[in-house]
Structure formats: structure tokens, C-alpha cells
Amino acid sequence: MLERLNQALDHIETHLDEEIEVSELARIAVTSEYHFRRMFSALAGMPLSEYVRRRRLTVAGADVLAGERTLLEIAVRYGYTSGEGFARAFRAVHGVGPGEARRTGAALHSQPRISFRLIVEGSSTMRYRVVDKEPFCVVGRKARVPLVHEGMNPAIAAFIRSIDQETLARVTALSDQEPRGIVAVSDALDPSRAEGTELDYYHAVVTRSPGPEDLDTLRVPEGAWAVFESSGPFPQALQHLWRDVFTQWFPSNPYRSRPGPEILSTRLSQDGTQADAELWIPVERATG
After folding, report:
1. What are the pLDDT digits (tens) for 78-91?
2. What burial class does residue 112 get, using C-beta atoms within 10 Å of its C-beta: 0-12 exposed, 13-18 middle, 19+ buried?
């Protein structure tokens, strides 16, 4: 898998001055567009679109300093329809406009080429199982919140505090299958998974049937789920678990992620500093 991902990165490099289709990158990597985006962001630490933008503007910076083309020619070459749009993007990455950079020979920022390697430490094992589930419903309360990669998510914390105890008890009573009890469900994430993009967050339970009309219901079709177990500091261990699933488990196993909600079941220690958790990720067998 990592060799194929690196081949897709080589394709990006040779087509920085052309439109890059994610479908073609996924074809090279022999996976789905959905899984390619998710695998890339987990391994690279940034969304695919951000990496491509930064690489284009890195190469464009060299063209700007070379002085062989006009600034408008460079802008068009790297996919910008106007000099103004190019100048804004250039300044966002390099901290200086292209005209000033050319006049003064300013030092520019560089986004290095990325290549992926799998480092096998061997000091621990990842506990997982694969479960086939029939269609089910997620029932509870839903909020649209921003994505936060590290640390506590203030929007989610405030949303959970806003749910009254009576509603929480009603929702909890609806749980009738794994994962049992109140779970945190993330759905409808932006494909880029960039920090600050929004997602649907459910504080809910997993159950066979839709809930009453005053509660929010997400219908989930049948499919396979990889279930990962984790214990450690809260919330860092949970966020690192998601990272490890995509940087270690997927490259080493014949599965890929598929569209669907991610479900997190957490049991906190009394002081709230430690957690035992299960992370449910929708998966399918990889082909090719």
C-alpha cells in the first residue's frame, strides 16, 4: 500500500502544472478516493488539497524568483485564474507577495516532497476485531461542530453539557446492541478533514429502530466494521488511536475504509484523566 501511495505522490509531482484528479491518484494507489484522502491526511498530517496547494506554490516560488515568465503566466500555469488570486495564495504560503519576492529576492518557504515509510516498532500490538453488522440506527442528539485534531473539542464539550439528564436517560435506554451505552458518532465530515471543517456529531446510542421524532436519527446500512481497543490518557490516547489506525493498521492489513460514521465508545476513569475506548471504523476488503 505505501509503495502505491508513493507512486501517487510521484504523479502529483509530474502534474503540478495540470489539474490533478483524486480519482487518478486513487487508481494509482489501487484504492477508493475516500480511503486515499483519509490515508493521506493521516500519514501526512495535512489534507491532500493543502499538500498539493503548498507544493504548487513552492514550485511557483522558484519560477517567480527565476524571472523567466511574467507573474500572470506563472499564475495561469499553476491553476489560478487571476493574478490577484495567485498573489493572495502566494502570500499565504510565503509571507510575501510574488511581485515583492521577485524585486527583492526574498527568502521563500518550501513545502518538501513527501514520501511515506512504515516504521515497525514492535513494542506493542493493536487490539482489533472485524464485525459484520446488519442495518442499525444511531439515535440521540446531533450538532454541527468544527473538527479539532488535538486536545478537547470545546464545541462538543459545550453541546454535551447542554443535554438535560432526562433526555440523556431516555437515549441511554434505547441502546440494544454493540457498542452499548452512550457513544460519540462523527458523520458527514469534509473530505479534506482539515482542522476547523465541520462534521455532524451525535451524542447517541446504537439501536435497531429509529428513535422518537424529538430525537435525531441516523440510519446506517449493513457492512463490516473494524473495532479497535485503546487505553490511556484522555483525550490524547483516543486521538492517537485514530492516527495509528490509518498509519499502522491499514497499511498492514487487507482492508480499506469506506464511507460511513465513526463510532467511539469511551469509559472514563473517575477523575476523567484516563479512558478505555473502542473505535468503530467502517471498512471493506481491499482489492487488487
Report:
1. 999 999 999 999 99
2. exposed
